[in-house]
Amino acid sequence: QVRLAESGGGLVQAGGSLRLSCAASGRILSPFTMGWFRQAPGKERVFVASRTRGGTKTQYADSVRGRFTISRDNDKNTVFLQMNSLKPEDTAVYYCAAVEVFSTEAERYEHWGQGTQVTVSA
């Protein structure tokens, strides 16, 4: 019913910026939360940021707060992740996800994209 497709990943130098996009197609659940997660090699998938449709609830992981910004274009069913001051530790596959209710837990999200690789060189 709902499909998510990430884009915008790539290779950047430490200190640089990158903007990820996630386009949703199909029937969009409402209310719902759009979130970003990431998974580094050999590690578990972890929460990065999330935002509800109305923007009343916006959350960031401590590791990215102040550097990353999540935004949404509800009319286009697209969520973005602006990543600034990137660090090598940010290197991971970034996943876009959606859930009917507000959540920062990966287990609660029902729809997932295939991920986009972000590599930050030292």
Structural commentary:
The chain has 122 residues and is mostly beta strands. Helix content is 0%, strand content 52%. It is built from no helices and eleven strands. Strands 2, 4, 5, 6, 9, 10 and 11 form a seven-stranded mixed sheet that branches. It has a four-stranded antiparallel sheet with strand order 1-3-8-7, with no helix packed on it. Strand 4 (33-39) and strand 5 form a beta hairpin. The mean pLDDT is 93.
Low-confidence stretches: none
- Rg calc: 13 Å
| % residues in beta strands | over 45%
Give the count of helical stretches.
0
Key descriptive features of the protein:
0% helix; mainly beta; 122 residues
Write the layout of secondary structure elements.
Elements: E1 2-7, E2 10-13, E3 18-26, E4 33-39, E5 46-52, E6 58-60, E7 68-73, E8 78-83, E9 92-99, E10 111-112, E11 116-121
Parallel strand pairs: 2-11
Antiparallel strand pairs: 1-3, 3-8, 4-5, 4-9, 5-6, 7-8, 9-10, 9-11
Quick overview of this protein structure:
The chain has 122 residues and is mostly beta strands. Helix content is 0%, strand content 52%. It has no helices and eleven strands.
